[in-house]
Amino acid sequence: xxxxxxxxxxxxxxxxxxxxxxxxxxxxxxxxxxxxxxxxxxxxxxxxxxxxxxxxxxxxxxxxxxxxxxxxxxxxxxxxxxxxxxxxxxxxxxxxxxxxxxxxxxxxxxxxxxxxxxxxxxxxxxxxxxxxxxxxxxxxxxxxxxxxxxxxxxxxxxxxxxxxxxxxxxxxxxxxxxxxxxxxxxxxxxxxxxxxxxxxxxxxxxxxxxxxxxxxxxxxxxxxxxxxxxxxxxxxxxxx
Length: 240
Fold this sequence. Notes:
Blueprint: E1 11-15, E2 25-29, E3 74-76, E4 99-103, E5 109-112, E6 120-125, H1 130-144, E7 153-158, H2 170-176, E8 182-185, H3 191-195, E9 200-201, E10 203-207, E11 213-218, H4 223-235
Parallel strand pairs: 2-9, 6-7, 7-8
Antiparallel strand pairs: 1-2, 3-4, 4-5, 6-10, 10-11
């Protein structure tokens, strides 16, 4: 993949998550030329950022039962190793991805992984992340121009919800952006993101028709670069 040599710096956010084994998750919003270092300008927020993303149903507002910013997520199988862009090769390539089962904002079931009969692109996005906001229109451009590889299923995952962040709520943000694909609402603990080894936003995971990892990428990129990334990943089907 051609490296994007823009000077965009990572934005780092910390959010306390309700996991017995970990109390702090660090996630970065970076461009495709980020190397995973934290030497750029950072924004740190520690507290209940992730846990406050779910609408609390009330008797006065029935709509909160229908649209929620976080939904339950379950995982079957071992999580993928965390993605590290500094490694010469991604050790997750060729491994079976866990099956991640969740729901869209309105409760419609959404599943990523497993044998589906077609390859899948999972796109992990945070509504407050500037590079995610750059990535979304590039992916929509590929869809509108018919340049997505034939048969590829695209699924978005809204994760790291922050009610104090820009573009909240993500259920409206995704509509305003014109996102045409199915979307899973990650839970408060970022279970879906963690299961696929995500460490920054945006984060792309390409799976083959059997649910094996073909490629992963962190950071935004122009549509042409993403197309090349996908074409190369899908050309490796059956070779891993």
